[in-house]
Backbone:
Protein backbone atom coordinates (compact mmCIF):
# COMPACT_ATOMS: atom_id res chain seq x y z
CA UNK A 1 0.00 0.00 0.00
CA UNK A 2 0.95 3.56 -0.56
CA UNK A 3 1.82 5.81 2.46
CA UNK A 4 -0.45 8.57 1.08
CA UNK A 5 -3.52 6.35 1.50
CA UNK A 6 -2.59 5.51 5.09
CA UNK A 7 -1.85 9.13 6.09
CA UNK A 8 -5.49 10.14 6.91
CA UNK A 9 -5.89 7.07 9.15
CA UNK A 10 -2.65 7.83 10.95
CA UNK A 11 -3.74 11.44 11.55
CA UNK A 12 -7.14 10.30 12.92
CA UNK A 13 -5.53 7.79 15.28
CA UNK A 14 -3.09 10.46 16.51
CA UNK A 15 -5.95 12.93 17.14
CA UNK A 16 -7.94 10.31 19.06
CA UNK A 17 -4.89 9.51 21.16
CA UNK A 18 -4.37 13.17 22.07
CA UNK A 19 -8.05 13.69 22.96
CA UNK A 20 -8.25 10.62 25.18
CA UNK A 21 -4.99 11.57 26.85
CA UNK A 22 -6.29 15.03 27.82
CA UNK A 23 -9.59 13.55 29.06
CA UNK A 24 -7.73 11.03 31.22
CA UNK A 25 -5.56 13.83 32.58
CA UNK A 26 -8.67 15.82 33.61
CA UNK A 27 -10.20 12.75 35.26
CA UNK A 28 -6.98 12.13 37.18
CA UNK A 29 -6.91 15.75 38.43
CA UNK A 30 -10.58 15.57 39.50
CA UNK A 31 -9.99 12.32 41.41
CA UNK A 32 -6.94 13.83 43.10
CA UNK A 33 -8.98 16.91 44.10
CA UNK A 34 -11.73 14.71 45.59
CA UNK A 35 -9.17 12.71 47.55
CA UNK A 36 -7.86 15.90 49.20
CA UNK A 37 -11.24 16.79 50.71
CA UNK A 38 -11.19 17.15 54.48
CA UNK A 39 -13.91 17.92 57.00
CA UNK A 40 -14.47 21.68 57.14
CA UNK A 41 -13.58 22.25 53.47
CA UNK A 42 -15.99 24.22 51.30
CA UNK A 43 -17.11 22.51 48.09
CA UNK A 44 -19.33 23.13 45.07
CA UNK A 45 -21.34 20.22 43.70
CA UNK A 46 -21.77 19.56 39.99
CA UNK A 47 -25.32 20.91 40.44
CA UNK A 48 -23.94 24.25 41.66
CA UNK A 49 -24.77 23.88 45.36
CA UNK A 50 -22.21 25.12 47.91
CA UNK A 51 -21.72 23.15 51.10
CA UNK A 52 -19.23 22.31 53.84
CA UNK A 53 -17.72 18.82 54.13
CA UNK A 54 -18.56 17.10 57.43
CA UNK A 55 -17.38 13.52 56.81
CA UNK A 56 -15.49 11.79 54.02
CA UNK A 57 -15.89 8.06 53.38
CA UNK A 58 -14.61 5.88 50.56
CA UNK A 59 -17.29 6.65 47.93
CA UNK A 60 -19.51 9.26 49.58
CA UNK A 61 -19.32 12.57 51.39
CA UNK A 62 -21.54 14.00 54.12
CA UNK A 63 -22.16 17.69 53.35
CA UNK A 64 -23.76 20.39 55.47
CA UNK A 65 -25.81 22.38 52.96
CA UNK A 66 -27.32 24.70 55.58
CA UNK A 67 -26.85 25.01 59.36
CA UNK A 68 -28.12 21.73 60.77
CA UNK A 69 -29.05 20.27 57.34
CA UNK A 70 -26.89 17.35 56.22
CA UNK A 71 -26.96 15.44 52.93
CA UNK A 72 -24.97 12.49 51.61
CA UNK A 73 -23.42 12.90 48.15
CA UNK A 74 -21.30 10.64 45.98
CA UNK A 75 -17.71 11.81 45.68
CA UNK A 76 -18.17 12.07 41.92
CA UNK A 77 -20.87 14.71 42.50
CA UNK A 78 -18.30 17.15 43.90
CA UNK A 79 -17.42 19.60 41.15
CA UNK A 80 -14.77 21.66 42.92
CA UNK A 81 -13.03 21.91 46.26
CA UNK A 82 -12.85 25.63 47.03
CA UNK A 83 -10.14 27.50 48.93
CA UNK A 84 -11.34 28.93 52.24
CA UNK A 85 -11.21 32.58 51.15
CA UNK A 86 -13.23 31.91 47.99
CA UNK A 87 -15.82 29.83 49.88
CA UNK A 88 -16.24 32.56 52.53
CA UNK A 89 -16.53 35.23 49.84
CA UNK A 90 -19.28 33.31 48.02
CA UNK A 91 -21.27 31.99 50.98
CA UNK A 92 -20.80 34.55 53.73
CA UNK A 93 -19.83 37.61 51.72
CA UNK A 94 -16.60 37.92 53.70
CA UNK A 95 -13.91 39.58 51.64
CA UNK A 96 -10.31 38.57 52.13
CA UNK A 97 -7.71 41.16 53.06
CA UNK A 98 -6.68 42.24 49.56
CA UNK A 99 -4.57 45.35 50.09
CA UNK A 100 -3.68 45.46 46.40
CA UNK A 101 -7.30 45.44 45.24
CA UNK A 102 -8.61 48.78 43.94
CA UNK A 103 -11.17 50.53 46.11
CA UNK A 104 -14.44 51.17 44.31
CA UNK A 105 -16.59 53.91 45.87
CA UNK A 106 -20.29 53.32 46.51
CA UNK A 107 -21.27 56.74 45.16
CA UNK A 108 -20.18 59.19 42.47
CA UNK A 109 -18.30 61.51 44.81
CA UNK A 110 -14.90 60.47 43.47
CA UNK A 111 -15.98 61.33 39.94
CA UNK A 112 -17.07 64.86 40.83
CA UNK A 113 -14.17 65.81 43.12
CA UNK A 114 -12.29 67.33 40.18
CA UNK A 115 -15.14 69.78 39.47
CA UNK A 116 -14.59 71.67 42.73
CA UNK A 117 -10.88 72.04 41.98
CA UNK A 118 -11.67 73.30 38.47
CA UNK A 119 -14.01 75.97 39.87
CA UNK A 120 -11.36 77.13 42.32
CA UNK A 121 -8.78 77.36 39.54
CA UNK A 122 -11.06 79.78 37.66
CA UNK A 123 -12.07 77.49 34.80
CA UNK A 124 -15.50 78.19 33.40
CA UNK A 125 -18.03 75.36 33.36
CA UNK A 126 -19.90 74.73 30.15
CA UNK A 127 -23.65 74.98 30.63
CA UNK A 128 -25.52 72.64 28.33
CA UNK A 129 -28.94 73.90 29.43
CA UNK A 130 -31.26 76.18 27.45
CA UNK A 131 -30.03 79.77 27.32
CA UNK A 132 -32.80 82.39 27.66
CA UNK A 133 -30.50 85.25 26.60
CA UNK A 134 -29.73 83.37 23.38
CA UNK A 135 -33.47 83.13 22.64
CA UNK A 136 -33.81 86.93 22.80
CA UNK A 137 -30.98 87.44 20.31
CA UNK A 138 -32.51 84.84 17.97
CA UNK A 139 -35.83 86.73 18.06
CA UNK A 140 -33.99 89.96 17.22
CA UNK A 141 -32.36 88.31 14.18
CA UNK A 142 -35.68 86.92 12.88
CA UNK A 143 -36.73 90.08 10.89
CA UNK A 144 -33.33 90.21 9.15
CA UNK A 145 -33.66 86.57 8.12
CA UNK A 146 -37.20 87.17 6.83
CA UNK A 147 -35.93 90.07 4.65
CA UNK A 148 -33.21 87.84 3.17
CA UNK A 149 -35.74 85.14 2.27
CA UNK A 150 -38.08 87.68 0.67
CA UNK A 151 -35.18 89.07 -1.39
CA UNK A 152 -34.28 85.59 -2.67
CA UNK A 153 -37.89 85.01 -3.71
CA UNK A 154 -37.99 88.33 -5.59
CA UNK A 155 -34.84 87.44 -7.54
CA UNK A 156 -36.36 84.10 -8.55
CA UNK A 157 -39.60 85.75 -9.70
CA UNK A 158 -37.71 88.24 -11.89
CA UNK A 159 -36.18 85.53 -14.09
CA UNK A 160 -37.25 85.98 -17.68
CA UNK A 161 -39.93 83.71 -19.05
CA UNK A 162 -37.58 82.69 -21.88
CA UNK A 163 -35.20 81.09 -19.37
CA UNK A 164 -38.03 78.90 -18.08
CA UNK A 165 -38.92 77.84 -21.65
CA UNK A 166 -35.28 77.14 -22.51
CA UNK A 167 -35.08 74.42 -19.87
CA UNK A 168 -37.42 71.61 -20.91
CA UNK A 169 -39.11 69.78 -18.07
CA UNK A 170 -38.91 66.05 -18.05
CA UNK A 171 -42.39 64.53 -18.30
CA UNK A 172 -43.15 61.10 -16.95
CA UNK A 173 -43.43 58.36 -19.57
CA UNK A 174 -47.01 57.53 -18.65
CA UNK A 175 -48.09 61.16 -19.29
CA UNK A 176 -49.39 61.70 -15.75
CA UNK A 177 -48.78 65.03 -14.08
CA UNK A 178 -48.71 66.11 -10.47
CA UNK A 179 -52.15 66.25 -8.93
CA UNK A 180 -53.76 63.88 -11.41
CA UNK A 181 -55.01 60.59 -10.17
CA UNK A 182 -56.31 57.68 -12.11
CA UNK A 183 -56.93 55.46 -9.11
CA UNK A 184 -59.70 52.94 -9.46
Residues:
Amino acid sequence: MNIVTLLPFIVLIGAMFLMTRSAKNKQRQAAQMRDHMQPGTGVRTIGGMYATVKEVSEDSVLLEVAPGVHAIYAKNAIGAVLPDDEYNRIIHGIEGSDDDAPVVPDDLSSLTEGDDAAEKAGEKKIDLGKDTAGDASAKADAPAKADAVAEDEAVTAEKPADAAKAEPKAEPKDGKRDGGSDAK
Q: What stands out?
A: The mean pLDDT is 75. The CA atoms of residues 19 and 25 lie 10 Å apart.
